Amino acid sequence: MSKQRAGLFIAFEGGDGAGKSTQAARLAAALEARGHTVLRTREPGGTPIGEKLRSLVLDHGHGHIDAHTEALIFAASRAAHAGQVIRPALERGDIVLTDRYIDSSVAYQGAGRGLGEDAVKSLNEWATSGLQPHLTVLLDVDPAVGRQRRKAGAAAEDRLESEADDFHSRIRDAFLELAGRRPESYLVLPAHDSVADLSARILDRVCSLLASLHGVPAGAIPGNPDGDPL
Ligand code: TYD
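# thymidine-5'-diphosphate complex -> structure
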């Protein structure tokens, strides 16, 4: 996977209502202001077929979808996303920010639906040919707070969001367990901290990561003078 080193791959994870999209947008803007090329994307989705799979799996009205089918649809969407969007962007040297990745399947389908971590991980490692983020930003949200935040927003709850609180508690625990096992690859932040404070901490960690991966001084690369694909 040597080509993956050309770019930087960051996943945002967390329960529903954690504020991942807000933080991904703010990080993208901050990195672009420093001269980086950033690709913002999301799962399920990110490709034309992935967006179709997204509505299949999230919209109400397709009748009962059993847990195995659900896991396979998320994995199918992810296979297209990893192969057609994320890997090519990393090979170009871009910074890829994805709203959700494999950990979401491990948490929602593995722990939430009870399919188990090992089965869901191996399905997804196969689907993505082992493509892993350099860093996962986990916004840890209390399920009750997440639900309140979703209710305050305009959109109706999708199939997964409308699951009971104990489903969302299992998901929260699963995310924290994944992060606890490999702390060097995670930044875990309490989602209730202020938006500005969270953004500053995320940017700080990403700048350090860029510095350690590419030898770029943390903070800025005015004009990226060497044309170095960061
Ligand atoms: P998301 O796009 O974060 O929701 P929205 O932007 O509509 O707020 O995610 C959609 C839902 O899909 C969310 O409840 C989590 C769920 N999900 C899984 O169950 N497994 C997965 O692998 C992924 C990527 C998402």
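# post-check
The chain has one domain: 8-214.
The longest helix spans residues 67-92.
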